[in-house]
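#struct-help
A.M.: can someone run this one for me? Single chain, 430 residues.
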Amino acid sequence: MNDSERDDEDDGRGELDVEALLEALRAGELRLHELEDHADADVATAARRRWLEGETAASLGTVGEYAFPAARAEPNIENMIGAAQVPMGVVGPVTVDGGAASGAYHLPLATTEGALLASVNRGLSVIEAAGGAAARVTKNGMTRAPVFRVEGVVEAAETVEWVGEHLEELRAAAEATTSHGALLDVEPYVVGDSVYLRFAYDTKDAMGMNMATIATEAACAVVEEQTPASLVALSGNLCSDKKPAAINAVEGRGRSVTADVVIPGEIVEERLHTTAEAIAEANTRKNLIGSAKAGSLGFNAHAANVVGAAFLATGQDEAQVVEGANAITTMDVRPRDGDDGTADPDKSGDLYASVSLASLEVGTVGGGTKLPTQAEALEVLGLRGGGDPPGSNADALAEVIAVGALAGELSLLAALASRHLASAHADLGR
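D.P.: on it. Structure tokens below:
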């Protein structure tokens, strides 16, 4: 829908509305965020875009070419001027044997990085040739960690003891704010006169950050009422949200998910033009030793590439790619047995490949998943909306993304082991 089509809506009064809003903006009578109070969302968006063109001399015609009513985006954006269009492609199908995902899946990915989908698709084709991948969500818990002030260690210990003895009281207060979320645990941490309480929730099919925040606020009121602790901040950064953090690598946040596959040695050689031994060595020296030397929290090749592209396509919070990159890739050689049942040194080994994402924060309801293009991407996966049982759709999404990340790891490591990385990019013109 372009500007002229929007302006012709409402019996031809749209253009007049846009001009009136522009005049009010230029006169300082209205501010940018107030336009929706005086016109429908599309008219307000068009006026704001026209105003910005005049202020900057930019041409925003393409930004204004979006395919959904602006009102659909009101929960997700302020001061809307249009939409940023990121190319979306699809990879797969690949067979996933998951705890929630089951069957063949096409994974939509949105990115501006050339060669990414080609690389992931190559990895998925190899995984499919090996019979598909297994995947499991091993832990689930969205966290929020408020920080409290106490007089000293005595009051800190008193507060921690009270929390440990009154978990059910905190659970009742937290769960009274939501019909879906469930408080799983509260883990205390003491640093001098600061007490941090790391609340963890099962948020079902929602990513759940807002749910956890609102529920934790209610629980904090109980803590303040019953202990000497005074709340300083509802988030004390021990959550830890949208920042590299070791606690997420160890304890997890959102969904901890692992995908793995065993690829016969002959498939490795035929499809990836290298050997299981070479890929395993590249992984050890690059992803494990190299990452350790760099002090990295992620021991992987480029898991964030697939996580980020899947997040943009399916309406996840893109800033949480930070936690999504918190992954460890392992590659090991499984010796092939000879006719006598013992390892045959003359046979190329099979490749065991896995990726474990410690803190993948995804949902299939709420937030950006309600936007039209992102909802369509979830429909491609068959995972739009709430699952049955609740939480199963988000679990399945995490498992499919993990298999996609595994494919990306496998393809890149094979390209490095065969020394084809640069030539692949050159051939694809990237």
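A.M.: thanks! The first strand starts at residue 88 and ends at 98.
D.P.: also worth noting: The mean pLDDT is 91.
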